[in-house]
Design brief:
Blueprint lengths: L3 H9 L4 H26 L12 H24 L3 H22 L6 H11 L3
Length: 123
């Protein structure tokens, strides 16, 4: 017996625009958050509102993190090739992490690489 999600996927044969829209919103938030981090903490420019130790930036960071986790968990059940997609995402994350470690060893962050790879990979 097929699950409801399998029936939906088979019947529609297309992507859920709502999931793609939420993923795009999460990606845009992550890009802005990390661009601001780079602007303030790597390039040394002042910002009146961006401080990673403030409550609002912590809430923003957690929103981004949890949106990726929840969306990836839901999307996993819809994927036709979850193992292949997972391995591709992990490989891209390793490449990005190694490139960052070589270019800027003091700024290595494996979490961002994983989120970036997940956001841009095909389902």
């Amino acid at each position: 017996m097929q699950t409801e999600q399998q029936l939906l996927r088979a019947a529609a044969g297309q992507r859920f625009w709502q999931i793609d829209a939420l993923r795009g919103l999460a990606l845009l938030n992550m890009l802005v958050y990390h661009a601001m981090y780079d602007w303030v903490y790597i390039f040394g420019h002042a910002s009146g509102w961006y401080d990673i130790w403030s409550t609002h930036c912590h809430v923003w960071q957690q929103y981004i993190c949890w949106s990726f986790i929840l969306l990836s968990g839901y999307s996993f059940t819809l994927s036709r090739r979850p193992l292949k997609n997972g391995l591709l995402t992990a490989a891209c994350a390793v490449v990005l992490t190694v490139a960052t470690a070589v270019a800027m060893p003091e700024e290595v962050s494996s979490g961002s690489a994983c989120c970036t790879c997940w956001a841009v990979r095909p389902c």
